[in-house]
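step=predict obj=APS reductase n=297
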Amino acid sequence: MFPDAVEVQTLVRSKGLFSFYEDGHQECCRIRKVRPLRRALKGLRAWITGQRKDQSPGTRAHIPIVQVDPSFEGLDGGAGSLIKWNPVANVEGKDIWNFLRTMNVPVNALHSQGYVSIGCEPCTRPVLPGQHEREGRWWEDAKAKECGLHKGNIRDGDSTKVGVNGNTNGVATSVNGTPDIFDTQHIINLSRPGIGNLLKLENRQEPWLVVLYAPWCQFCQGMEASYVELAEKLSGSGVKVAKFRADGDQKPFAQQELQLGSFPTILFFPKHASRPIKYPSEKRDVDSLLGFISALR
């Protein structure tokens, strides 16, 4: 699998080769790793990983052997359509290496040079004796130890950055220790008065797509990459893409005024209509959402 060449060229030309040092690796990982994997998984019903609990105690200590994938969609689309197997979740690293040596399995030559956990070249370094293997990944940031492929491992209350370049102060915001999501310059962060004004408009100048979300919701987290990609594709198209955090004190309002039933709820506010139209499907991939918007525009 390869990343989209135009996306890579645009990123490098606009931000240079090393922008990931500035944004917590989010955009680079999303373009070069997460989106290609998503394309591959869309044709499958299950996938197998090599994750272990002792590999990254901060994010992988609770991974099960088998689970419904919280971040990606499978062949049938929608939440719950992809199974994720982690068969060595409970196996310790030393036992993996004992097996490899016993069975004379060929391994990457970098392992003998101290690269215990191998990732992208600029984001990986050898570890020192006594250091944990994950210390060699994203070494300039002690907290950022998941790139997005296993983002579902980040539990509620984890302080790991999820994204930057938001619409407020350029940094991902956090409420009660839960990192915010959908943070990109292409997605407008609506306040309660903001979405209230959007509801009152009967003759909007342009249509809006708004996701009602809670940052702790695994299904919201699972659609984040798709929604961000959608916002990027719609940039300059005349459709505004936004988010409204609808949990906590905002939940009663969202239930009464915004048709909130569960998280996430996606609403389309047409250009010349007073009430929003609720997205009826659990398929939250880019193509499905684009089809919904096209049909209503």
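step=describe
Residues 156-177 have pLDDT under 50 and may be disordered.
step=end
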